[in-house]
Design brief:
Helix 1 crosses helix 3. The longest helix has 20 residues. Strands 1-3-2 form a 3-stranded antiparallel β-sheet. The protein is mainly alpha-helical. The radius of gyration is 17 Å and the shape is globular. The protein is built from 5 helices and 3 strands; from the N terminus they run H-E-H-H-E-E-H-H. The two termini are 29 Å apart. The protein is 52% helix and 7% strand. The protein folds into 2 domains: 71 residues, Winged helix-like DNA-binding domain superfamily/Winged helix DNA-binding domain (Arc Repressor Mutant, subunit A); 40 residues.
């Protein structure tokens, strides 16, 4: 798995956040599916040539977000979508980010139709991945 992860030491984004974002995106796109096993922290750190504490911090964040689950003695796996709960604080944060994106688009001179088409195009990118309906299963 670690081969497709790209860490940029020169980035302003912390290394653990780069891992979190890339793994989260792979889950959203369906490249990582529920039940897929992630490499052990030490193995991931070794392959990416980073401190094991950095990999552990990323896994901790992903586990708190309920995107992954660690089973003692077995390993770390992608969590089942049905076991995830919606965090209202995260939804509010997401709404703020969407508002900021809309504001930037309007300030660039884009029309509502263009913004809507752009959003739907990006959403379809995630919805068309294998095993990903783009909808939350209740």
């Amino acid at each position: 798995m670690a081969l497709w992860l790209q860490i940029s030491v020169g980035s302003n984004e912390p290394l653990y956040a780069q891992l979190v974002n890339q793994i989260s995106k792979a889950i959203a796109e369906g490249r990582l599916r529920p039940g897929d096993k992630l490499p052990a922290v030490r193995k991931l750190a070794s392959e990416l040539v980073i401190n094991p504490n950095t990999a552990a911090k990323a896994y901790t964040y992903l586990e708190q977000a309920k995107l992954i689950v660690t089973k003692t003695g077995s390993g770390t796996y992608i969590a089942d979508k049905n076991e995830r709960s919606t965090d209202i604080a995260e939804v509010n944060c997401l709404n703020e980010r969407i508002d900021n994106i809309i504001t930037r688009a309007i300030n660039l001179g884009l029309k509502q139709k263009d913004i809507s088409e752009m959003f739907m195009s990006r959403l379809e990118k995630f919805s068309k991945k294998p095993g990903n309906s783009g909808e939350k299963n209740d």
